[in-house]
What does this fold into?
Amino acid sequence: MKLTLEIWRQAGPTQEGRFETIEVPDAVPQMSILELLDHVNNGLIEQGKEPFAFASDCREGICGTCGLTVNGRPHGADKNKPACQQRLVSYNEGDHLRIEPLRSNAYPVIKDMVVDRSALDRVMQQGGYVSINAGTAPDADTLHVNHDTAERALDHAACIGCGACVAACPNGAAHLFTGAKLVHLKMLPLGKEERGKRARKMIDELETNFGPCSLYGECADVCPAGIPLTAVAAINKERVRAALRTKDD
It folds into this structure.
């Protein structure tokens, strides 16, 4: 299939970027977006030209590394799939694809389609962990968690931190990401010990780096892990709970 691509080219964080047009006459519908970029890069290398930089790792939809935007939509046309799982079968012969980095003030461009998503890491550093006493590991059945609670916690723990939710939000909010972490940890016994402190610190960091929630729900529409939109509600719930409790738990 023949495709016309406009791919973002930017030499560095302080350099001005531009779109570069590439004609691809031999794309295969089974290719993923990343494999399409591989194909383009192979041709550029053969011509002695610089390939496009983009991020990827596992290419199995579980690492969250492959963040980019296709025709204005994070990852691509299909709902709830990362870029490495987006196939060209979703497009037609002669289509025009504009491929660029995830766009957000919180994501400065490093090069081409590679962006710095460390703002998400800073949110996690504030409370995305549990503190336990070192020593002999407890028996597996010491801490009881019922099946429904474990399943709900795991549903929210599935977030891969790709950052597409931020790029999809017109306000650049990371409420789906942060809410998923808060719900996951509050539901498990070890995570409850620091619940209030975690909420205060993570939400403060969230609001320092990201915008307010738009309330539109675009974030859940592009989330590869299928994190439910209800995770966003955890931000205000945990904020109010932490404010009302006098114990600094």
In short: The domain at 118-244 is CATH 1.10.1060.10 (Fumarate Reductase Iron-sulfur Protein; Chain B, domain 2).
